[in-house]
Design goal:
- The chain is of the alpha/beta class and about 260 residues long.
- The protein folds into 2 domains: about 80 residues; about 150 residues, no CATH class.
- About 40% of the residues lie in helices and about 20% in strands.
- A 5-stranded mixed beta barrel has the order 2-4-5-8-6.
- The longest helix is centred in the last third of the chain and has 44 residues.
- It is found in: Cell membrane.
- Belongs to the SURF1 family.
- It is a multi-pass membrane protein.
- Keywords: Cell membrane, Membrane.
- Pfam families: SURF1.
Length: about 260
């Protein structure tokens, strides 16, 4: 084991183990958030642009943050989204395209304006809201919770036009006047319902722990990998040593014979 060849292999293992140890330390440093958001911070209403920018992903601590935003509704872009639950009851959301003001270029935000358990009522509300937006394109001020995009879903076989998940990307494919349009990735659940619909149940997010146990698990994995590097060197060197001993014993046996 003290031969130059195996000392060189040991040096390589030391370098590899050092890299693994550094990665483990890095994971540990990310495992504990030393400056978590204060309790109740999501309930303080903040301007939308202070929370997320158009096209950006919503950071985890800000999911459910109450925000306010101003804009105008785009006519004919009130769309029904299915599979929406309000306090355990399945129903429908009516969503709209809000063209945000105070932006140098066109920017839109998907907004869920209300809930109902009846599909016909949801479709009627969407039609009425579209007609109102076309008749009087007034500026509106909204307050609600900003929520991460749920992602698009495979269209239902029974109705390919049905949207079963709240995804601004999926709604964008149905919106009008989208040339050079920027879109917020998350969506807003309005605090006050519209169109005779019920308010969307959107409680405050649960306070999370400032300890990320997944990162701690990864740090432990890197420690195991570092130990395995030394074990691999020991096993290879010992196997080579045992092979040399066996060869010497066989040679000695042949000489005696």
């Amino acid at each position: 084991m003290l031969r130059p060849r195996w000392i060189g292999v040991l040096a390589v293992c030391l370098v590899v183990a050092g890299v693994f140890a550094w990665l483990g330390q890095w994971q540990l440093s990310r495992a504990i958030d030393t400056s978590p958001p204060p309790p109740g911070s999501t309930e303080v209403v903040r301007p939308l642009d202070d929370v997320v920018a158009p096209g950006d992903y919503l950071e985890e601590p800000l999911v459910g943050q109450r925000v306010d935003v101003s804009g105008t509704w785009v006519p004919d872009d009130f769309i029904v989204v299915s599979s929406r639950f309000n306090d355990g009851v399945e129903g429908y959301w009516v969503t709209g395209q809000l063209r945000v003001t105070d932006s140098p270029s066109p920017v839109s935000l998907a907004v869920a304006v209300g809930w109902t358990s009846d599909k016909a009522q949801a479709e009627a509300a969407a039609s009425d809201l579209s007609a109102q937006a076309a008749a009087s394109p007034a500026l509106v001020d909204l307050t609600g919770r900003i929520i991460s995009d749920e992602g698009a879903a495979v269209p239902a076989k029974t109705d390919p036009q049905e949207i079963p998940r709240m995804s601004p990307a999926a709604l964008l494919s149905r919106w009008h006047d989208t040339a050079d349009l920027e879109v917020y990735r998350p969506y807003l659940t309005a605090a006050e319902p519209m169109g005779g619909l019920e308010a969307i149940s959107s409680p405050a997010p649960a306070e999370g722990s400032n300890v990320n146990w997944l990162n701690i698990f990864y740090a432990a994995e890197w420690a195991v990998f570092a130990g395995f590097a030394f074990y691999l060197w020991y096993r290879l060197a010992r196997d080579a040593w045992e092979k040399e001993i066996e060869d010497l014993e066989d040679a000695a046996g042949e000489t005696a014979a």
